[in-house]
Design brief:
Layout lengths: L1 H7 L4 H15 L4 H6 L8 H10 L6
């Protein structure tokens, strides 16, 4: 899914949003979209993004 999101460039915003919401809920990473669309000096590979997302601790409310 992350590889697909890296290559879509937001073609279908509704689908992209749905995938991001699902990944965010599944991983608990609140800034997943930033890692995918605005890497800011990070490696930006799908594997690196998923490794980071799984390392995030869910925010307790």
């Amino acid at each position: 899914m992350v590889r697909t999101l890296l290559t879509t460039c937001g073609d279908d915003t509704r689908t992209v949003s749905w995938w991001l919401d699902g990944l965010t809920r599944r991983t608990g990473c609140p800034h997943l979209s930033d890692l995918i669309f605005w890497p800011a000096g990070r490696s930006g590979t799908a594997e690196a993004i998923i490794d980071h997302a799984w390392s995030c601790a869910p925010i307790s409310l």
